[in-house]
Amino acid sequence: MQQYIKIYDQTTIHMKAKSFIAFFILSTTLLFLYISHKTTLPTTTAAASIPDLKIRPGYTTYESYIHHQLNKTLNPKLREIWKTRDWDRKIRVFAGFFGDLKKKNLLSNSSKALSVGARMGQEVEALKRVGVSDSIGLDLVPSPPLVVRGDFHRQPFDDGSFDFEFSNVFDHALYPEKFVGEIERTLRPGGVCVLHVALKRRSDKYSANDLFSVEPLKKLFKRSELVHVRAVDGFGLDTEVVFRKKPVKFVSNVAMGSDDLKLSVEGVVGSIPLETREFAGAQMIVKIQTRFCVKLINQELIFLPSVKGYLNDGVCDAK
Questions:
Q1: What SS3 state is found at 39?
Q2: What is the distance between the alpha carbons of residues 16 and 183, in angstroms, rounded to a whole number?
Q3: Which residues are within 8 A (CB) of 299 and not within 5 positions of it... i.e. 6 or more apart?
Q4: Contacts 24+ apart (CB under 8 A), 288-294
Q5: Alpha-carbon distance 132 to 151, whole Å?
Q6: Which letter does DSSP use for residue 130 in this model?
Q7: Between vectors from CA 105 to CA 129 and to CA 156, what angle results, nearest 5°?
Q8: What is the reported pTM?
Q9: What φ, ψ does residue 143 adopt, rounded to 5°?
Q10: How would DSSP label each residue in 43-106?
Q11: Cα dist. 315→275, 310, 318 in Å?
Q12: CB contact burial 228-242 (16+ within 10 A = b; e otherwise)
């Protein structure tokens, strides 16, 4: 009898410990979001007026929306499935998707990649396994070392941080325009965003919006161009939509120095270290120490992504 009591006590303690951990994660996450959102997000969304995109009602505050999302993210049964039964299967499928994108030159081993809404990090692990080693995930609940804490409505990254961003949680965005705006802000010019969305079926009860065609995405991605749309089988999501962020044009306050190209972009003055400067007729090609090159075409400096990271023999390989 004492043995059974001892086992019962140990089980009770274990269950209480798990409950405390879940409560602690929920509390710290809500505190993080409260601190990071001192400027209150709007109570209405501009996306509500876009045809073929419906925002689901029922959220009285942003905190209630976050709490609803965390009910899924912190569900212990789901997290156990994500870590065990689903882990290898999802990595294998995501690796297939990313491998196809590499063949299309939309992703490379030198890309700095972000998975938005990565949960336990299967997408991140898949990116690393196909050779994209500089990859990280973002989610409300961190999962070190693959996933850091953050809200996709306000990413905790600097402008132009990534070459590639992937997400299959667009339907969880309460503010789709902010979701897309943050992706475009943190993507470098020429960077690629890949979304997996559901168009032929409705998403689960944790979704915050319903998407009925690709047209709303084309309206939301104001600083990007549509690359392709194709059918996929992605864990309940049926369509892959790919956008490329447009190059930035530098048209003012240009000064050539011996070491730096100094310029002004949308009011922000920056300086780019030069390695060489090539002149070919009306074009000036500049080799810089990042994944970009600059062309002077029709008196405009065009900031373009370099496929290989640098110029090759004075020729810009950007497309």
A1: coil
A2: 39
A3: 251
A4: 288/261, 291/110, 291/163, 291/188, 292/188, 292/189, 292/190, 292/318, 293/317, 293/318, 294/250, 294/261
A5: 23
A6: T
A7: 65
A8: 0.71
A9: -140, 80
A10: SS-GGGGSTTEEE----SSHHHHHHHHHHHHT-HHHHHHHHTTTHHHHHHHHHHHHHHHHHTTS
A11: 13, 9, 9
A12: eeeebebeebebbbb
Please name the residue that has the structure tokens 């850091």.
Answer: 148
Distance (Å, whole) CA 245 – CA 43: 28
Residue 81 neighbours by CB under 8 Å, 6+ apart: none
CB 242 within 8 A of CB 228: yes
Strand partners, 50: none
CA distance 137 to 234: 18
To which H or E segment does residue 276 belong?
Answer: strand 268-280
CB 120 within 8 A of CB 154: no
Confidence at 132, pLDDT banded by 50, 70, 90 = very high
- Is residue 246 a contact partner of residue 223, using CB atoms and an 8 Å limit? yes
User: How do 162-167 and 187-197 pair as beta strands?
Assistant: parallel
Residue ranges in 104-130 assigned as alpha helix (H): 122-129
Q: Helices in the chain by DSSP H: which ranges?
A: 2-36, 62-73, 76-83, 87-103, 122-129, 176-186, 215-220
CA atoms within 13 A on the CB side of 32: 19
| Dist CA 293 CA 175 (whole Å) | 34
Strand partners, 100: none
Return the closest-CA partner of residue 164 out of 145, 178, 183, 182. 183
Task: Say what percent of the chain tops pLDDT 70.
Answer: 62
* pLDDT digit string, tens, across residues 90-111: 999 999 999 999 999 999 999 9
More confident call, 254 vs 6: 6
Handedness of CA 74, 80, 84, 86 (dihedral sign): negative
Rounded to 10 deg, the angle between the 62-73 and 2-36 helix axes is 140
